[in-house]
Design goal:
alpha+beta, Thiamine-binding protein domain-containing protein
Length: 102
């Protein structure tokens, strides 16, 4: 398996509930939190309308898709997704932690 498929990722999803949806805004947020909890990778609330997923690349990307679908299905107006690859830790005594760093 290529190394880039094993990289650890963090995905933050920020939901903007719609006051005009069939479900009230709180129900939209609860649907997202429920989907995040069932998604697989580690998930935790990162603010009133945000959730963070962390884990392996494939599982985080798949979970982000499922959480986004749950938000839209519940009537959310927008879903902002920010995905970051986790930097590798430098070895003891070395600065950095990024690939290709001097």
């Amino acid at each position: 398996m290529p190394g880039h498929n094993r990289d650890e990722l963090t995905a933050e999803l920020k939901i903007t509930p719609s006051p005009r949806a069939e479900q009230p805004p709180q129900a939209q947020v609860e649907a997202v939190m429920r989907a995040a909890g069932e998604a697989g990778p580690a998930a935790h609330e990162a603010g009133p309308d945000s959730v963070v997923l962390s884990g392996g690349r494939e599982e985080v990307l798949d979970a982000a898709r499922r959480v986004t679908e749950a938000a839209l299905d519940a009537g959310a107006k927008t879903v902002e997704v920010r995905v970051e690859a986790q930097e590798e830790s430098g070895r003891f005594g070395e600065a950095g932690g990024r690939r290709g760093s001097p």
